# Entry
Amino acid sequence: EVAARSDAPVLIVGETGVGKELVARAIHAQSDRAGGPFVPVNAGALPESMLESELFGHARGSFTGALAEREGKLVMASGGSLPLDEIESISVRAQVQLLRVLDDGILEPLGSDKSRRVDIRLLSASNADMQEAVRGGSIREDFYHRIMVLRIAVPPLRERAEDIPLLVSHF
# Structure
């Protein structure tokens, strides 16, 4: 509820399978952005070469196979929320680009010299030790602090025994 009332970026952490995307959906559904799009992206499932195009979009001819201009997920999520799972897997280059979007609301599609303004709320998720990733250099420290304005740790079900009857009833 606290995270939903804010428009700040949220970092949702927990083991695989604990329901981080469900937490992101709940934040979005209870927020002022509930009427806007909810556009989830699993960064870990995309090759690094495709991630930037997927997030930021691209101009026609910007790379082999870019036969038409394409809006990225950030544009699609404008006015709503962008849950970005496995945030620890994005490249340092993409982190810098995403920082600009978070700070200024401006992005440049690949191969384009035209900037676009977007209004997104980033809901990042990770099962990694993000502080260790910062120490190891795979996550920029400024990026880490920018995405972790609010942090929600989701414990595994083995630590939430009181939820089991509710889940059994639901299923």
